Automatic annotation (TrEMBL):
It comes from Salimicrobium halophilum. The keyword Transmembrane applies. The keyword Transmembrane applies. One of its GO terms (molecular function) is serine-type endopeptidase activity. Residues 268-370 form the PDZ domain. This is Serine protease Do.
Length: 382
């Protein structure tokens, strides 16, 4: 009798054969079940593709359409502002900036733009988004905030801008600039970026002496702002104004740093320019010089304590002013106002314009002939 030896691989082969029959049986079962269902008119779809994460094309398209609709609506409110100046050769266009129609009241409409766009202009012309040109009248301007308000006939005005609350703007939000870079040939140009920073303090030279006279608080964006964009709109993705474009850092080594005046500042200043033609601010009535700008010998002659390192020196006191009535004198050194340290004329001006108002009492800490004293005065309107 012949004996059979079981090879170690025989067990594996048996298992494989059993698995093959199982698979074959399953396929036959599926075929039979499918055939029965189809004979009864029931359709079976078997999906074998793996699941994948995909964006909803409809949602993306709707978002883009909403943004483009918002931009187009805002574009209708953005205009060109041409400054015309008288020269020995007659009237000449001194440059073109941008503006935003923000209010319509009866037969009149109002445009906000930058002060530096209309400065020293003898005539002003506004070009509407459809190319229609209308004469404009200066209602008022404010060099410190770089804002101006123009009045135009409302006949050709359809939409007016809708302002957002710029206090709710956050860094990283979409920022879209609309304006007329390099003039009306590129009217209504749109550039897109983000809000890069908030509450930026930018020094401003108002009298051309290359020294800062004021620090304006602005919003920073990397949306392209070019010459001609000044006075144009900076909007959010919903088409609401978050700022009025004002300036950029123009250096070869700098790219994408532009600034806009926040909407909250714009709305408050334009209201005052509409009603009064100017912004009224508290006034002391003296000419001032920074202590830090004096030579060491001149500082010694003031006989002030050595630990006094900053302050402002009174030059002249105008008659019938708060300073004259309070008895401020030439060469008085002001170091504090209402307990706040004053190191420069800029510090004093910012305190007066931002933290005080006409009619308030202010207490000055003053050094006169080396002695410290307190001087109280009532601020008036300039």
């Amino acid at each position: 009798m012949k004996l059979f030896k079981r090879n170690v691989n025989d067990t594996g082969n048996s298992k494989r054969n059993g698995f093959a029959f199982s698979v074959f049986g399953a396929i036959v079962a599926v075929f039979i079940v499918t055939a029965i269902f189809q004979s009864q008119g029931i359709k079976i779809n078997i999906e074998t593709n793996p699941e994948t994460a995909q964006a909803n094309p409809l949602t993306v398209e709707n978002t883009e359409k909403n943004t483009t609709d918002a931009i187009q609506a805002a574009q209708e409110t953005v205009v060109g502002v041409s400054s015309i100046k008288e020269t020995p050769r007659g009237s000449q266009n001194a440059g073109t900036g941008s503006g935003v129609i923000y209010k319509k009241d009866g037969n009149q409409a109002y445009v906000v733009t930058n002060h530096h766009v209309i400065e020293n202009a003898s005539e002003l012309e506004v070009t509407m988004s459809d190319g229609t040109k209308v004469d404009a009248e200066l209602q008022g301007s404010d060099p410190l905030t770089d804002l101006a308000v123009l009045q135009i006939d409302a006949e050709n005005v359809g939409k007016v801008a809708d302002f957002a609350n710029s206090d709710n703007v956050e860094v990283g939000q979409t920022a879209i600039a609309i304006g007329n870079p390099l003039g009306m040939d590129f009217a209504g140009s749109v550039t897109k970026g983000i809000v890069s920073g908030l509450d930026r303090n930018v020094p401003v030279d108002l009298n051309g002496d290359s020294k800062p006279d004021w620090q304006t608080t602005v919003m920073q964006t990397d949306a392209a702002i070019n010459p001609g964009n000044s006075g144009g709109a900076l909007i959010n993705k919903n088409g609401k104004i978050i700022g009025i474009n004002s300036m950029k850092i123009a250096k070869a080594e700098v790219e994408g740093i532009g600034f806009a005046i926040p909407a909250e500042t714009v709305t408050s200043i334009t209201a005052e320019l509409e009603s009064k033609g100017e912004v009224e601010r508290p006034y002391i009535g003296v000419s001032l010089y920074d202590l830090s700008q004096l030579p060491a010998r001149a500082v010694q002659e003031l006989n002030i304590p050595e630990n006094v390192e900053g302050g402002v020196i009174v030059g002249e006191t105008a008659q019938n002013t708060p300073a004259a009535e309070a008895g401020l004198k030439q060469n008085d050194v002001i170091t504090k106002i209402d307990g706040e340290q004053i190191n420069s004329t800029l510090d004093l001006r910012q305190y007066l314009y931002e933290d005080a108002k006409a009619g308030d009492e202010a207490t000055l800490t003053v050094f006169r002939n080396g002695e410290q004293q307190e001087v109280t005065l009532t601020l008036s309107e300039q």
